[in-house]
Amino acid sequence: MSTRTNQTVNQTAQFSILSQDQKQRIFEGMIETLRNTGVHLHHEQARELLKEHGALVDGVSVKIPQNLILDALATVPPVTVVQSWDGTRKTLIEKNQVLFGPGPTPPNFTDPHTLERRKYVRTDAAMVARICQALPNIGFVQSLGTISDVTVSLADVYEFAEMVQNTTKPILSWAFSRNTCSDIHQIAIAMAGGEDAFKQCPNYVFYGEPISPLLSDFHAMDKAMYCAENGIPQVYTPCCIGGGTVPATHAGQLVCALSESMLGVVVAQLINPGTCVIMGGVQSIMDMQYSVYAYGAPELGLLSAALTEMAKFVGLPMFSTAGCTDTKILDPQGAIEAATSVHSAMLSGANFIHDVGYFESGMTGSVLQLVMADEQIGMSHVVARGIDINDETLAVEEICNAGPGGNYSDTDHTKKFAASLWQPTLMDRSSYEDWAAQGRKTMKDRIIEKTRDIIANFEGPISKVPEDTKKKIADILQAAEAREAENAGAKSK
Amino acid sequence: MLEKTMLIKMNQQAYGTTRFQILTGDQIEQIYFAALDVLEISGARISHPEALELFTNSDAVVSEDNRVRIPTAMVEQALGSCPSKSTLTGRNGKRSVKLQKNEVAFGSGADAGFVYDRKSGERRESSFADVEAAAKIVDYLPRLDFCMSHGRVSNAPNPKTYDRHQFLAMIKNCTKPLVVTSIDGDGLRDQWEMACLLRGGEKEFRLNPLFATFIRSDSPLMSSNDTVDKLLFATEKGIPAVYTPCAVLGVTAPASIAGVLVQTLADALFTVVLCCLKKPGSPLLLGGIQSVMAQAKETPSYGSPELHLTSAAMTEIYKWLGLLSSSAGGCTDAKVVDEQAASESVMSIYNNLMAGTNLIHQIGCLDGGLTGSLASLVMCDEIIGMVKQIAKGIQVTDETLALDILKEVGPGGEFLSHDHTYDHWKEWFRPTIIDRSNYEVWSDSGSKTYNDRLEPEVDRILESHAPEPLDENIVQEMKKIINLADKKEV
Amino acid sequence: MSEFLGKMAESLIAGKVDEVTDLTRQALDANVSSKDILEKGLLAGMEVVGKRFKANEMFIPEVLRCAKCMHGAMEILRPLLAETGVETAGTFVIGTVKGDLHDIGKNLVGMMFEGAGFKVVDLGIDLAPAAFVAAIKEHNANLFGMSALLTTTMPKMGETINAIKEAGLRDQVKIMIGGAPVTGEFAKEIGADAYASNAASAVDTGKELLGL
Fold it and tell me: b/e map of B193-232 (b: 16 or more CB within 10 Å)?
């Protein structure tokens, strides 16, 4: 029996935009930018901390020497595990491990029943979480809206409270400030079953945003520090607008985005070496006709994939963007833009690929777009996972047995391998006659049907949440309300 | 101002374009070796007399049941004689379709039996006028490089000669190179003669082919006599031939992806050997459809992700062997231009472009190739633009890193009004049908969907675009050839 | 005279900043009135720019370059126009509210208003109501704009309008607001005069409010 030696195989598709030298240059650009241009950091305590460690501080300007960056990158963790509150699901944040999910905080929401554009309410958060739970290709959760029917300053906390009970997939939460960050953290601890359980294995990730170019406002940094202090894995990433808040050239945008996240990484590692910080963000360009941030532009896919490579280069996980669109109504534009960015992000190997379901350049969240993109992710996965080559799959024997023009329909080989072919849930492959007879449905019709079906019939894990945990959450919300009322009262005096 | 000394950063290697790879060389080799085994053990079957004679006079073994088994040496010798490049030159004189490694060209599809009527919106049989309309649109669209018939001339006076009529309809309305199907060897000959008229002779045509012939085989490893007729004629006259075996996983081919690749490659290599035996050095492109069955239709799915994967993989295999490749892209199982058509078109364009497929055809085909859609042609032109933008990759230079601009603008600054933005923003993709207005502007303008914008654009192109007219004398000469064929084939 | 002005309009449309400034000086030296330079040279040019922008023939970076030309020329003309009592479009004070450091949209709006011939006082970011009030007073603004990206800072808009009322300045100034979470409804609620969803329509709306 003969043996094959010296084989290199692709276990998945390979995709790359930047050579090693190109990545090195961008990395050097980041080092130089933080050293010589610096950032504006509107957080006195953070500035003090950096100053202690050798940064040059002048007012809000902070210039960071490269040894601080290199030291920080030496302590970031290669693996972070997030475990669901019911213990059933482990999410690994490690190089090239891909997950897709929605995005947070659009001001509007598409009602899946009336198809109207409306405000987002508390019950929507629970619904979005359940839909994410139901969709096989969605791996984490964000809200797709901003709750409008609760105390304005607690929209973030209510959102988390609703979502966390309706999914076991990790939530990337956001918060207005340290206070609500802490409220959310208390809820997460309640769901985990106590502070020790959380410390053992976190059950959520936090999302925060500096501002481009090269600016961290007080609350963004304050929350980042809170997360580092408490061992909460966090995302610290900007939304860079090419030609607006960052250079119009992609390499310059990558330098800027990398620098902005790096500030968060450095501070977090100084506070708690080994705490997980994820870089990346939303990377696209300003449409120069409509002055809109173009979520559907191909540049988004290109920039996101390139920044993903930079993340891998420096050893950090990547928060990427895909499945989003500039369309105002679910239509082929939404599909074109989402399919393009989804496939690019999949191939790039980013860790949390968010904003799936973002409509209207991020102004409206849509679960219909999310359900459509879930199907597209499934298609992308088939290409991304590549081809298994071995004696059995090569099927030389089968081919010779069947002979020229032979039939393979009933063979054992076919039975075995046909089982792993992709099954569409939203793609129609019927004949024209059958399709016409069944009402000439478009994919949009099928998307709407499927979405409504999930909403009506998929329960999710809420019945598994223990009663006393629900009580704890209610208490936390109540305490938060009291605090906000007090603050509001104090302000008006 | 600081004087600049000579500064150079040495030893830099960049990715000139985005890089994409499904298979390593080692994996391709495994598939190749397996295909060679199939050709030696099982071979292919043909009944074409001339082909059988060519094989009989070679080192191949021809058995009683017309089975032909081929030794590896013959395959590799044939591979060595394949030209690494060819070019298609349209009647506009531009050598615009470069058939060479990693150069990608896009074009429409062929022979769809149906189209959607522009006035009624109803589906009906396609006609000469539809082929003309599609050719016109292909002529106009900046990202389509070659023209296939799109529809079939089902209203041809003689059903056995619609291919000549198609040729005329296309050549009159499109100045770009053509890729043409033919009914049989005689049809191909007539098309070639028409092309030679335009080119100025046989030798001129060989040097600068006007069209490639698209030869489809539906039965793996069993080319029909018509198929072989066309292959042999094309080889003899130096007409670039696109050979497209079609295989359905689990039905006419193994259900494993690697298995269908092996079978397809064996079929392709068999054809390479055959053409080489006839006359070495004729340009040959290998392609086809390797997909799953669309169950209810019993025809291959044109939108399955398996198809996207096999297309890219076959392209990589052909590249590795020094061969030219062809695949279907911009096509879908959807019956109308909806979100499915968009998604499946994106995926097939994306993966084929990234893999470097030389000739990507079927742009604008709906319903698994049964219906041609002018709207989808226009949609796919935009999709191609978007995917090309990603394929272009990223340049990392001092100018693009813009470190000094970052310093100048500083933290909290803006780049909108900077010269650097003025200088570079036009490098981005510019949408045509895609709309990026905000909600207020969009609803004030009528809340249009993508389809609402797409259809009028099709009409606009049809009304306003006038392809360079073809010399009337040449048209008359071509018509003579066609009339002769019409009469002969009664 | 019309030669100068025609050329000036052309240079402005072509975005030639230095040329427009030079031509402005040359025209003044040739005794062309500042009013004519403003209306028949500069604004005439910007009108063409505005039309082309709306027709998708010119784009934001080009428009901003033209606005720069405008700005350069206005620096020279403004004192002269004031002397001779010619009315310009006015003074537009703009800024991002307290607690909010986002400003790219606001920056674009400011630059577009410059292109329309306004004097623009961009106060920057993170501005308390008092700072806005002071600026409106100091610059005698007739138009005022606020921007916010964060929902939690939107209440500052209402507070600012109240502060303007309390300072007795409400009648002096037309108030516009903008930013991603802001809506026309919200504008009405807090007593602003208008909301605009993008920079170009902001200029149109601003002019409308002032009856220009």
Answer: bbbbbbbeeeeebeebbbbbbbbbbbbbbbbbebbbbbbb
* Contact state of C197 with B425 under an 8 Å Cβ cutoff: no
| pLDDT at residue number C85 | 83
Chain A residue closest to B401 (CA)? Answer: A252
Find, among A135, A129, A107, the residue nearest to A373 by Cα.
A135
Distance from CA of A390 to the nearest CA of C (A): 54
Q: Does C101 touch chain A (CB under 8 A)?
A: yes
Tell me the chain A residues in contact with residue B340 when contact means C-beta distances shorter than 8 Å.
Answer: 335, 426-428, 442-443
**A298, B255: Cβ pair inside 8 Å?**
no
List the single best residue of C57, C66, C100, C102 to mutate versus A (max A Cβ within 10 A).
C102
Task: Give the contacts of B38 (CB within 8 A, at least 6 positions apart).
Answer: A396, A399, A400, B262, B263, B266
Counting one residue from chain A and one from chain C, the pairs whose CB atoms sit within 8 A come to 41
Q: Quick one: pLDDT band at residue C2, thresholds 50, 70, 90?
A: confident
> Does residue B345 share a domain with residue B298?
yes
CATH number for the domain harbouring residue B187: 3.20.20.480
Give the domain range for residue B386: 85-251+283-393+429-490
- Average pLDDT, stretch B105-124? 95
Specify if A47 maps to a domain.
yes
Q: Which residues pair with B211 in a beta bridge?
A: B178
A196 and A47 belong to one structural domain? no
User: Which residues, 6+ apart, have CB-to-CB distance to A40 below 8 Å?
Assistant: A60, A61, A62, A214, A215, A216, B411, B412
ipTM of the complex: 0.97
Domain that holds residue A136: 78-209+281-384
Q: At A429, is the pLDDT very low, low, confident or very high (cuts 50, 70, 90)?
A: very high
pLDDT digits over B298-309, tens only?
889 999 999 999
Residue B326 bridge partners (DSSP) = B359
- Residues of A within 8 A of C101 (CB-CB) are 42, 211, 215, 217
Rounded Cα distance, A38 and A25, in Å = 18
- Looking at the structure, do residues B340 and B225 belong to the same domain, yes or no? yes
Do A28 and A146 have their domain in common?
Answer: no
Distance, in angstroms, between B409 CA and closest chain A CA? 9
Hey, is the C-beta of B294 within 8 angstroms of any chain A C-beta?
Answer: yes
Average pLDDT, chain A: 97
- Closest CB to B254: pick one of A252, A398, A436: A398
Q: pLDDT band for B104, please (50, 70, 90 cuts).
A: very high
Residues B177, B148 share a domain: yes
How many of the other CB atoms lie within 10 Å of CB of A68? Answer: 21
In B, which residues are within 8 Å of C125 by CB distance? 412
Domains and CATH numbers, chain C: 2-84 (1.10.1240.10), 91-209 (3.40.50.280)
Rounded to whole angstroms, the Cα distance separating A323 from B343 reads: 11
Work out the minimum CA distance from A422 to partner chain C, whole angstroms: 40
- Which position has the token pair 């960015």? A341
C-contacting residues in B 416-455 (Cβ below 8 Å): 416-417, 421-422, 425, 438-441
> Which of C108, C111, C197 is closest, CB to CB, to B440?
C197
pTM, two decimal places = 0.97
B405 and B465 assigned to the same domain: no
Residue C201 with chain B: CB contacts under 8 Å: 440-441
Residue at which a domain ends, from A13, A40, A73 = A73
| Residue A288 and residue A339 in one domain | yes
CATH number at residue A186: 3.20.20.480
Quick one: A118 and A193 in the same domain?
Answer: yes
Chains adjacent to C (≥3 CB pairs closer than 8 angstroms):
A, B
**Calpha distance C92→B10 (Å, rounded):** 52
Q: What is the mean pLDDT of residues A23-34?
A: 98
- Considering the domain architecture, whether residues A290 and A162 belong to the same structural domain is answered as yes
Assess if residue B6 is contained within a domain: no
Q: Do A153 and C59 touch (CB under 8 A)?
A: no
* In contact, B210 and B254? CB cutoff 8 Å: no
* pLDDT > 90 in chain B, percent: 94
